[in-house]
Design a protein that fits this description.
Blueprint (H helix, E strand, L loop, with lengths): L1 H20 L10 E9 L6 H4 L17 H6 L9 H9 L8 H17 L6 E9 L2 E9 L5 E9 L2 H9 L14 H16 L11 E8 L4 E8 L17 E8 L17 E5 L2 E5 L7 H6 L11 H12 L4 E13 L2 E12 L3 E12 L2 E12 L8 E12 L11 E13 L9 H7 L2 E12 L3 E16 L3 E18 L1 H9 L3 H7 L3 E13 L14 E11 L1 H9 L11 E2 L2 E2 L3 E13 L4 E14 L46 E12 L4 E13 L22 E11 L4 E11 L17 H4 E7 L4
Parallel strand pairs: 1-3, 4-6, 7-9, 7-11
Antiparallel strand pairs: 2-3, 5-6, 8-9, 10-11, 12-13, 13-14, 14-15, 15-16, 16-17, 17-18, 18-19, 19-20, 20-23, 21-22, 23-24, 24-25, 25-26, 26-27, 27-28, 28-29
Length: 769
């Protein structure tokens, strides 16, 4: 009772102190701008849409609750020359002192914005409320009755353009009955301009399009007319119809230096070659095959100029690692009575060869280690912008918590991998047009990895053939045409073997720790509504992403085994060259959504589900394909691989804490703090389960009438260091609901927290979702 009373008094004192210090540096006669609100009398006008027009806003709040940076600034003293005062002022925010001039300007900007939305008679007034040295500011909006478009007419004196606009009229943004919205009118100008630029009108711009609006007295109706001016190359020229432009000659300049003069005559070239009618100019040596250049063009001689085709060409050349920059220039020329464009595709070569060294620290469930790698990359292996990569990697980790007599407590890993990435779709029997349209890349890869653990040693060798391509800058596809992995275990500790077999898990042990062949196929789909609009890892608007993946293994081998009458081995499995193979199907789905509250705060949601089912030639899922819970990207109240399956409490062996079914869900409030620091408050939920019941995983099997009772819940705080190119993340999670227990205070640690028992710290790179 006394403790609760003390905490109450302490909290009141802190709040009172914060209230007093908030106005510490507000001059006499001035006021701290404490709050700004926008009120409208029209539900169709959202106050949030008008916030950008307000010129003065109060000091920002962490998590939309506390003006922490203002209080940090006010920790400084009056003497601004002292270093600690400079420090507090640098990382804090000076108080926002109310400005009547800014309020008046905001009022005018809001009025203009409403008028542009069609509310011509809208009025805005600002009202202030003063309390001590703080002021609250309200903008009260009376929108009035909006103006609507009664009739829509076109005055276009250029017959060819009039015909083109008519053909595209189904996509118009204007219609009778719409609000007289200036933003929509300007968007229609831009839409028509984009359409004309894609149909030969190289010199057209939206300034040729204008509107006249006649209002009907006392009726709030507008008669709208769109006008299109005729073309003038100079102000004194007679107006004429807008010229159509055709592509004439297309030339490639392969060694363009962006630091030199942009004049064509000054480009340093000394040799050329002609390929299918295309002249290709270069210096000393042509580093790309001519066919690579022509295949990435999306326009041709004799065609009308098409701005979209030009942009697709930029995109295609931008995908080639052998190139650093691409510049497409058009020069007007007159051929007879026809206006044409000579095109110069100017390319700047990238650095083709590079060597990189990487050193990293690792943390696997609290076991610390280090890894190092060296890689070589060639970005133009066969003069077709193919990327060759070879990487050597080594890792060491000290393993703790092992129970039993093992000969060492270390984890060692050695590996080499190599791949070749082709910037086109390599597959027989496909037409060249299809390959150019899909814009896929083909990757062939080989990997070899050798691992030595206290429990066993393992070799993994794999080969893969996959395709990747991007659709409309938002959708990414990946097809794993074939992925072959061979798992070879030359040595297993007797202590490890006996530990499994003593627990009645001989079958599971034999399956996961025997030589195994995995031949799989898969497809993954990724959609991000933001596309490439991410600014310094920061979401600038509402967005969402979808990720789906499906893969299967062993089906073709199983059909082959059955068709050829292959005999099963002593374990009841089919084997190829005495190597049994895995057979399963696995599917994952992941959805994440980000809601932007304001420029400093956002709310993020995430849900992920996954199911892996063994069948046919398999009794269980290969360990590498199983799910685990806990860790920096899962339920953060648990360390990695330390949650589940189901109500299983764990036995010190992380190999037992894996499953065939996964459920993850999170909600996270993100807020910019100061400098490059961001904060987060989060709640996570989820768990994993097995499809079959295993003796060494009691309580781990999935049951429809019980799984929802076995969902673990955690909460916590996080700090993120945004370094533009990547984000360093530090999260601290606490258990809230522990599914190991069915009832009592142990099941609900949120009401009886124990920091040493319930806290988990995580360090990671990037956001959790």
């Amino acid at each position: 009772m006394r403790r609760g009373f003390f905490y109450t008094i302490f909290s009141i004192s802190i709040l009172s102190l914060a209230s007093c210090t908030a106005t510490k540096f507000v001059p006499e006669g001035a006021y701290l701008l404490d709050e700004v609100k926008v009120h409208t009398n029209n539900k169709d006008i959202k106050p949030s849409s008008l916030r950008p027009y307000i010129r003065q806003n109060p000091n920002t709040k962490w998590f939309s609750l506390v003006k922490t940076q203002l209080y940090i600034y006010n920790l400084s003293g009056r003497d601004s020359t002292r270093w600690y005062n400079k420090f507090f002022r640098r990382i804090g925010d000076a108080p926002v002192v109310y400005s009547e001039a800014d309020a008046q300007r905001s009022q005018e900007e809001l009025t203009k914005a409403l008028q542009n939305m069609g509310y011509m008679g809208a009025t805005v007034k600002h009202v202030t409320e003063v309390k001590k040295k703080k002021i609250k500011l309200d903008y009260e909006i009376n929108a009035g009755r909006p103006y609507t478009v009664r009739s829509l007419n076109y005055a276009i004196s250029d017959p060819q353009i009039a015909e083109q606009i008519q053909k595209d009229s189904a996509r118009t943004l204007l219609k009778e009955g719409m609000l007289f919205d200036v933003t929509q009118l300007d968007a229609e100008r831009q839409r028509i301009t984009d359409n004309l630029l894609s149909n030969g009108y190289f010199k057209f711009n939206k300034d040729y399009i204008s509107y006249t609006a006649d209002t009907v007295r006392d009726a709030y109706l507008v008669d709208l007319t769109m006008h299109l001016q005729r073309y003038k190359s100079h102000q004194t020229d007679e107006p004429k119809n807008h010229p159509l432009y055709q592509i004439n000659k297309i030339s490639f300049i392969a060694d363009y230096d962006v630091l030199q003069s942009s004049a064509l005559s000054s480009i340093n070239i000394n040799d050329s070659v002609h390929y299918n009618g295309f002249p290709i100019y270069y210096k000393d040596k042509l580093y790309l095959r001519p066919k690579v250049l022509t295949d990435n063009l999306r326009f041709a001689s004799g065609e009308l100029y098409d701005e979209k085709a030009v942009q697709r060409t930029y995109t295609n050349f931008g995908r080639l690692p052998a190139l650093k920059y691409t510049n497409i220039r058009f020069v007007e020329t007159q051929v007879g009575d026809t206006t044409k464009l000579n095109c110069y595709v100017m390319l700047t070569k990238s650095k083709h060869k590079s060597v990189a060294f990487e050193v990293e620290g690792t943390n696997s469930a609290g076991d610390l280690g280090a890894a190092a790698s060296v890689s070589f990359q060639h970005r133009n292996l066969f003069k077709g912008s193919e990327t060759f990569m070879m990487k050597f990697r080594g890792a060491y980790e000290a393993i703790t918590g092992l129970q039993g007599d093992y000969r060492n407590n270390n984890y060692l890993e050695y590996g080499v991998e190599t791949s070749v990435n082709f910037p086109n779709f390599l597959f027989p029997f496909l037409s060249s047009d299809f390959k150019r349209k899909i814009r896929a890349t083909t990757e062939l890869g080989l990997q070899y990895n050798y691992q030595v653990r206290p429990e066993f040693s393992r070799t993994i060798a794999s080969a893969s053939w996959s395709y990747k391509w991007i659709q409309r800058q938002r959708i990414q596809h990946r097809i794993d045409l074939i992925d072959i992995s061979y798992l070879y275990l030359p040595w297993i500790s007797e202590t490890f073997r006996q530990d499994y077999e003593d627990k009645g898990q001989g079958d599971i042990f034999d399956y996961n720790y025997k030589n195994r062949l995995i031949v799989r196929m898969g497809y993954s789909y990724n959609y991000n509504s933001m596309g490439s609009s991410l600014v310094n890892n920061t979401i600038t608007t509402n967005s969402y992403s979808i990720r789906a993946n499906i893969e299967s293994a062993g089906n073709l081998l199983y059909l082959f085994s059955r068709a050829t009458g292959l005999r099963k081995n002593s374990d009841g499995e089919y084997a190829i060259l005495n190597i049994p193979y895995a057979q399963y199907v696995k599917g994952d789905f992941d959805f994440a959504k980000n809601i932007r509250i304001d420029y400093r705060n956002s709310l993020a949601f995430h849900i992920g589900v996954g199911v892996a089912v063994p069948y046919g030639n398999a009794k269980t899922i290969p360990f590498e394909k199983q799910y685990f819970a806990g860790g920096a990207n899962s339920v953060r109240g648990w360390t990695v691989r330390n949650l589940g399956p189901g109500t299983f409490a764990g036995d010190g062996n992380f190999l037992n804490q894996s499953g065939d079914i996964k459920l993850d869900a999170s909600i996270e409030y993100r807020s910019k703090l100061f400098w490059k620091l961001q904060g987060a408050m989060f709640v996570d939920a989820g768990n994993i389960w097995t499809i079959r019941s295993y003796e060494n995983q009691p309580g781990g099997v999935f049951k429809f009438n019980e799984f929802y009772k076995q969902i673990a819940v955690a909460y916590g705080l996080g700090v993120r260091l945004d370094l533009d190119f990547f984000v360093l993340r530090f999260d601290g999670g606490m258990k809230a609901i522990n599914p190991v227990y069915k009832s009592g205070k142990d099941r609900y640690p949120i009401t009886h927290p124990d920091f040493s028992r319930d806290f988990a710290f995580h360090f990671a790179v990037g956001y959790p979702f």
